[in-house]
Amino acid sequence: MVCIYILMGSHQGSQSAPINRVQSRKDHFIHHATDRRRGVIEDLHLGIEISIEAVFDFFHKATQFLLSPTKILKATYEWFSYDKYNSEDISGDVSNTSVPASTLGDTDPVPRERKATTQGALNTDARTCQDVITELGYPYEAIRVITSDGYVLLLERIPRRDSRKAVYLQHGVMDSSMGWVSNGVVGSPAFAAYDQGYDVFLGNLRGLVSREHIDKNISSRQYWRYSINEHGMEDIPAMVEKIHDVKTTELKISGLETEEENNSQPYKLCAICHSLGGAAMLMYVVTRRIEEKPHRLSRLILLSPAGFHQDSNLVFTAMEHLFLMMAPILCRIIPAFYIPTRFFRMLLNKLARDFNNYPAVGGLVQTLMSYVVGGDSSNWVGVLGLPHYNMNDMPGVSFFVALHLAQMKHARKFRMYDYGSPAANMEFYGSPEPLDLGEYYGFIDIPVDLVAGKRDNVIRPSMVIKHYKLMKGAGVDVSYNEFEYAHLDFTFSHREELLAYVMSRMLLLEGGTKQQLPSNQKSLKLKKKEKVNS
């Protein structure tokens, strides 16, 4: 595993807690306060106004010329004079031309003109997670992580280098690290954890339209050829190991590592995961324990985790059968689900603004999207407005990830990817069938907190309860709680009740992780496979 380390932000700024900042920005919600883009309807309205003004200006000047012949002569003379002067100026030496340049320092409050960008010209919102974090005055650090199969991942950080408490937040499907900071200072889990003294790491799974990979010429079909297996056995291990390297190095330099901790890790790492991120994290913990490797984690907090999906709506059931029957054909036609061109991504970025500006249009889109996902009442329109859906990039979903979810739903089990034949499965798992992760929950040696949403129709509470029952039966230290939330409310909406609960569970971090296999479980060996079979 190769990691490229990029440091951004102040080392000293990360050492102290920004107490006054939280109080002064309590009601600052970043996705409402700094979204200055225009929607498509606003652009059309502005264009029509400019066109009408241009037409009337033309007739106004034409009328003036017709009623005053002297103006025609004067304008003609000025035009010829200007043309002659301009040609002489161009033919001269232009190397001594003075160009105004800004010499103001970064701390100077005087406003400066920004360079024009494509996003600025088109008035789209292309803010990154870094922009959101630094605009609010928090320190920021970016770490490029390269997985063993060559994918380049972005691990973002709100650093507290001297903290022995760390938290790793992992997003779900069609999401990114932006989901953990999009509600501003008060409503975002990432900022809440940082203000409680945690070193915060924000993971980003593979699956961006920009196709970050060490092979710059990788094709779209090759890039998107992965399942949830790769999320759990490539992406998360690479990021967790990088977190471990960073924390142990920094704490050793700062002299905070004690002799008693030399045999273990000098920090506690809690993982908070949503939806698909929760399933990938469970896969990571179970497979690492099977391989007898340390997982570095001290606690799991899983918000509506994926894995079991048999209790779902008719739309998802229809998609399940379609994917399973047509997989050999669809995988060749549709490598992934995303908006393929910059123009249509720009159009979505601007339409999202229209959906918010015009309640009737937004309400219609909200109703249609809610119906597609089984009546889930999440703010789907609001999520479309997040800046990670921009003209340059956006998160997508691999066809094989969707097929993997369909396989789980059909099998009624939380299991790893089915490679399509007993021989292929035997090569990877050592058995003709994919590994049933639920059967190996006894390997989980850390506390797990499961959270479900009563109004969640994407992953219903009954499916989270199934995780809970299997863990409880396997002797896992597990808790279960429910809130009146829909699926996206766990990350996108401002929920003080949820934040308070998550923070209270994080405070329970104590003791080290037990790195011993349960006596009633047999050890298995999983082999690496370069690509998913079609």
Automatic annotation (TrEMBL):
What are the recorded Gene Ontology BP terms? Answer: lipid metabolic process
Residue ranges annotated for the Partial AB-hydrolase lipase domain, each copy included: 130-184
Residues of the signal peptide? none
Where is there biased composition of kind Polar residues? Answer: 96-105
Region feature Disordered, mapped onto this chain: 96-118
This chain belongs to the protein called Partial AB-hydrolase lipase domain-containing protein
